[in-house]
Specification:
Largest sheet: 8 strands, mixed, barrel
Number of domains: 3
CATH superfamily of the largest domain: EAL domain
Strand order of the largest sheet: 13-14-16-17-18-19-20-21
Number of helices: 22
CATH architecture of the largest domain: Alpha-Beta Barrel
Length: 601
């Protein structure tokens, strides 16, 4: 079967496929394509001319020069004859553009629907989330449980809302517990010091009522003997009894520390009230089955009229009167005007010591020690004097005891030691071999580095050990007898002259005198001052001199005021005598002049 590759066949194929068809062959003379085509004549000629080599179009589709058609050659199996399919590019491009426009419209519509759906979904999610966020913010701000409610939401958000509600309740319970612990004592359930200070900061100043501080005396010894468990039971029962007594008149009951209880009373307190309270607390406290303890209570009262508007000032005044109540055996102690000033005076003395040492407010005076046998003076006792710029002259007994309690006495001792050795270095350089005694406190004697400190000071000023004497009181020795005796032995082995000051005023002088490594005993002025008129003092002095001499000690009597007393001391062979009969304490220059005049008589 055969058919002609002519124009008719091309038209038929076009009708079937919708594509333009060309049957072409090469002309021998010009090597150009010719044949039948469904293309318009002009388009056919231009297209055949642009194709060029038929082999190219057989392998790949080729655009015409004007890009109207996309042509692809088909090998028909007939030599030198081929078919070419022509795809009009314009309609295809228009179809592509239409399809693209449709897809864009579809995508835009789908995107718009997705956005609308997302917005609706987001609104359904963000509204409950927003309510939950606001609920969490109110919880974070600490709003009360009554002022906020958990949002009513469903689903997973409902679970979250319930969880946050439980969390809010847990936070409120925890805050209430922390608040209670911050303002209450855990053992007794009473208020604590923080709650008291907060209350007073709002209540002061007041004109009626009082602060009543109760202190259990010797409570530390109770803990040591019976144990802390018994002590805790005792404190709890003390708190219960106070709550029974102060049912109506107490604005607040508090435990301030281990053994202190504070009552803030809304009525004025009188001595009779203290008496009634002590009587109520006098009954024994049962701490264990069959075991009871009776407590000794001290009561301190600060009327609100003296409390001032400052909480710190009020508590300080209460502490002042509480310290006094612990030391005294009175029924109760009330704050009186002026006690706060005494407290500030003591604080000023302790505070101003370093400045006083630098600004020469303190100075040393020397009281002569006269030898009884030869009636000469080669020794003196160094005494401290302090003229404060605001407080005036301060008695040594006042500021020395304060410095001992504050722990600053060692600073003063070093200053005195250096001042005395500096003056001695001048006297010894001039050929006057004078020995000066310096008093030591209990804090100095427990310092095991004291012998080394003294040795360095003597070396610094180029003085021998015999130029210095140290005086210690019996009470200082008894503070830590083993350690103090060790320090004294080290000083004595160095060659330092040691003396026991105020001998006879202690309770165990005779029993420990033989153990002390000292060279001298100083009889206290209480036995010397009236020795010429008091036979008891004369007998004690004579016995002390004889006892001390029998133990190998020198004896110094201090406080000789008259010639009759001096005569008796010489009669009993007292080694050295000091007192106002010979001279009052003198500054260094006046002491030197007095000594020269005394020796030239």
């Amino acid at each position: 079967m055969a058919f002609s590759l002519d124009q008719v066949l091309a038209e038929q194929i076009k009708n079937v496929t919708g594509l333009d068809i060309s049957f072409v062959y090469e002309t021998n003379d010009e090597e150009k394509l010719a044949g039948f085509s469904t293309l318009p004549t002009d388009e056919k000629v231009r297209l055949f001319n642009s194709i060029g080599d038929i082999n190219d179009v057989l392998e790949y589709p080729i655009f015409s020069n004007d890009e109207k058609y996309l042509s692809l050659g088909v090998d028909l199996g007939i030599p030198t004859q081929w078919g070419i399919i022509h795809l009009p590019y314009g309609p295809w491009l228009e179809s592509y553009n239409n399809t693209r426009s449709q897809l864009i419209l579809i995508f835009t519509g789908v995107l718009a629907l997705a956005l609308l759906f997302g917005v609706a979904l987001a609104r359904n999610m963000t509204q409950p989330i927003g309510r939950l966020v606001e609920y969490a913010s109110q919880i974070g701000r600490g709003s009360s449980k009554e002022s906020i409610e958990a949002p009513s939401v469903s689903g997973e958000f409902g679970v979250l809302s319930n969880t946050m509600k439980v969390m809010q309740e847990s936070i409120i319970n925890r805050e209430e517990e922390l608040t209670y612990r911050a303002s209450h004592d855990q053992l007794t359930g009473l208020f604590n010091q923080s709650a008291v200070e907060h209350y007073l900061s709002e209540a002061l100043p007041k004109t009626t009522g009082a602060l009543v501080l109760l202190n259990i005396r010797q409570f530390k010894q109770i803990n040591n003997m019976l144990g802390f468990d018994v002590g805790n039971v005792l404190l709890s029962k003390m708190a219960e009894r106070l709550q029974q007594y102060w049912k109506k008149d107490a604005l607040m009951l508090a435990r301030m520390s281990a053994d202190k209880f504070l009552v803030i009373s809304n009525k004025d307190i009188a001595c009779q009230d203290c008496s009634d309270l002590k009587r109520f607390l006098h009954d024994e406290f049962e701490v264990e089955k069959g075991s009871s303890i009776r407590l000794d209570i001290s009561i301190a009262v600060l009327p609100f009229e003296y409390a001032t508007a400052s909480v710190n000032s009020a508590m300080r005044r209460l502490d002042i009167v509480a310290d006094k109540a612990r030391e005294e055996s009175e029924l109760c102690v009330f704050y009186k005007e002026g006690q706060d000033e005494d407290h500030r005076r003591r604080l000023m003395i302790i505070r101003d010591l370093p400045i006083a040492l630098e600004s020469n407010q303190l100075f040393v005076v020397y009281q002569p020690k006269v030898g009884g046998a030869l009636n000469d003076c080669h020794e003196a006792e160094a005494l401290i004097r302090w003229v404060h710029p605001e407080l005036g002259f301060l008695p040594p007994d006042e500021f020395i005891s304060l410095l001992e309690h504050a722990g600053n006495i060692q600073v003063l001792t070093k200053w005195v030691l250096n001042t005395v050795l500096s003056q001695l270095s001048q006297w010894w350089a001039q050929g006057h071999e004078i020995r000066v005694a310096v008093n030591l406190s209990a804090h100095d004697l427990v310092d095991e580095e004291l012998p080394e400190t003294v040795a360095k000071a003597l070396k610094t000023y180029g003085l021998p050990e015999r130029a210095l004497a140290l005086e210690v009181t019996e009470s200082a020795v008894m503070k830590d007898r083993v350690k103090v005796i060790g320090v004294l032995k080290a000083l004595q082995e160095m060659g330092i002259h040691l003396a026991i000051d105020d001998f006879g005023t202690g309770q165990s002088s005779l029993s420990y005198l033989r153990e002390l490594p000292v060279n001298e005993v100083k009889i206290d002025r209480a036995f010397i001052q009236y020795i010429d008129t008091n036979k008891g003092d004369e007998f004690i002095t004579k016995a002390t001199i004889e006892l001390s001499h029998s133990l190998g000690f020198q004896v110094t009597a201090e406080g000789a005021e008259n010639a009759e007393g001096v005569a008796l001391l010489n009669q009993y062979h007292c080694d050295k005598i000091q007192g106002y009969f010979f001279s009052k304490p003198l500054v260094a220059e006046e002491f030197y002049k007095w000594r020269e005049a005394f020796h030239s008589r």
